[in-house]
Amino acid sequence: MLNRFLYSICIVILFGYGAHKIWHDSSISPQDLVDAPHAHEQHLDGSGVTVAVIDEGFDDSHTSLKGNFSPFQYNTDNNTRDISETIIFENGRYTLESHGTHVSGIISSLAPNAKIIPIKMGMFGGDQAFVKALQTAASTSADIVNISMRLSHTGREIGFNAKAALIQLAKSGKLIVISAGNENAPLMSRAYTASLVELSHDPQMEGRLLIAGASTYEKGTERRADFSNYPGTSPYGTAQTYFLTAPGDKIRSTITGGLFGEKSGTSMAAPMIVGAASLLKQAFPSLHAENIAALLLKSARKVSLSGKNLPSTQFGAGIVNLKSALELGKNQ
Fold it and tell me: Is residue 248 a contact partner of residue 228, using CB atoms and an 8 Å limit?
């Protein structure tokens, strides 16, 4: 009888431990993984910071985003303020794209009082559409620019005009964050991403361009997301220098029609970095774009939550760590 009682007690304890572990794992949000709660405890919310988001459309009527969108809104297709989402054909039906809405929601989840300037870029304008969107972003008051889109429709290296527009964007004083892509490939193995690495080292960029890779966290394990492009090996570690990682797998955010849903991609990691940069810009308003970028890179977490090293060939500088970035910024 006693043995049966003790056995029952052990089962309860083990079940309780397992239930606690499951609850604990599921309670860790992407925002927790970059230490956003620490920044929020310091009363940082993105106030006074403006972000431009270049994307294919936005649901500006979403109840969770109405206060975030700036009255300055751009459609580079027809020079109007129509930023409505693009209709796409997917899984046998027409649907609204939701990409820009999802990206904007991620930024606001970290920096709820940051203002977002939406720049809608048409799908069929070729590389010249990117150029126009970049030039538009350069003309705005934005401190940071989120680009969760491939800057070349062809997959080839970034064209001369787009490079010139990105340099102009950097010279206007803005921090630029661009998603690394989702081919599960080292950056230097493909023409487009290799040209992105080359551009990040161009002296005219002044250290104001970050390339965003995606991490995933599941069942206590933190690793590079299977789809995410990554630095890989390169001469002198050039592919790793401006590469920064953030959560980008199964990220819950705003979608069309006032709803919420999950999306995965380096497209989701970029706005996590942008949201973090927005909080740093608020905390240290006198810092220039390159200083904010340097803070993020130097303070990035190089060890997983379970204590494993995060190699630079996979994670670049590491995973965004707002707590360390804020401490580093205070000591500069």
Answer: yes
Residue 9 lies in a domain: no
Backbone region of residue 156 per phi and psi (left: phi > 0; alpha: psi in -120 to 50; beta: other values): beta
CA distance 177 to 205: 12
Domains identified in the chain, total number: 1
As a whole number, the mean pLDDT across the chain is: 90
CA dist 269 and 20 (Å) reads 28
Report the pLDDT averaged over residues 78-101.
Answer: 81
Gyration radius of the chain over CA positions: 21
Answer whether residue 15 is part of any domain: no
pTM of the entire predicted model: 0.90
247 with 214: CB under 8 angstroms? yes
197 domain-assigned: yes
| 47 in a structural domain | yes
B/e letters for 265-300, b = 16+ CB within 10 Å, e = fewer, are: bbbbbbbbbbbbbbbbbbbbeebbbbbbbbbbbebb
Confidence (pLDDT) at 123: 64
Torsional sign, CA 283, 288, 289, 290: negative
